[in-house]
Design a protein that fits this description.
This protein is mostly beta strands. The chain has one helix at 2-15; strands at 22-35, 38-51, 54-66, 72-76, 82-86, 101-115, 119-128, 131-141, 146-153, 156-164. The strands form 2 sheets. Strands 1-2-3-6-7-8-9-10 form an 8-stranded antiparallel barrel. A two-stranded antiparallel ribbon has the order 4-5. It starts with a helix and ends with a strand.
């Protein structure tokens, strides 16, 4: 990974002349994603550094998805109320048991090149669940600070929005 980053920095300097790397600022993403067989929503934050059309973005976040605990469910009662129940014994349970939301933390590093008037293309590495998986990424600006982006890789797909501040 270290060699890859050094190589990207060298290419950026060659392509952009002697232009120094510039910090662009905070980046936030909101994606619909499928990672390791689970569909959910990715919420991430990071920082962007760019030079000569190249950008490097270290990011961290979480994939929020429906958990796999089907023991508890919501029961709509005749009086119009809804209560949480335990499917193993039918008894009422705490409402917090019916939440059934899970999250997986991730970290990733993206390197992209901006093609003027078209968008950006690149690749990245995503660490989650003890594994690093590579992916390709494309992005298209849809406003001054907003971009539509897509990531595709080994057991990982995401489509969403990225905002730079």
């Amino acid at each position: 990974m270290h060699r890859m980053l050094n190589g990207l920095a060298a290419i950026g300097l060659l392509m952009g002349g002697a232009e120094a790397a510039q910090a662009k600022g905070v980046v936030a993403e909101l994606n619909g994603a499928r990672a390791s067989g689970v569909w959910g929503g990715e919420i991430g934050m990071g920082y962007e550094v760019s030079a000569g059309g190249f950008a490097l973005r270290p990011m961290a976040g979480m994939l929020v998805y429906k958990g796999d605990n089907d023991r508890y469910y919501r029961d709509d009662l005749a009086n119009g109320q809804s209560r949480c129940r335990d499917s193993t014994n039918g008894q009422f349970a705490s409402d917090s048991r019916c939440m059934n939301v899970a999250a997986r933390v991730y970290a990733r590093l993206e390197a992209t090149y901006n093609i003027s008037g078209v968008g950006e293309v690149g690749g990245g590495a995503r660490y989650s669940g003890g594994k690093v998986r590579g992916y390709g990424t494309i992005g298209k600006p849809i406003g001054p600070v907003l971009s539509l982006k897509a990531n595709v890789g080994d057991r990982y797909y995401a489509l969403g929005l990225r905002a730079g501040f």
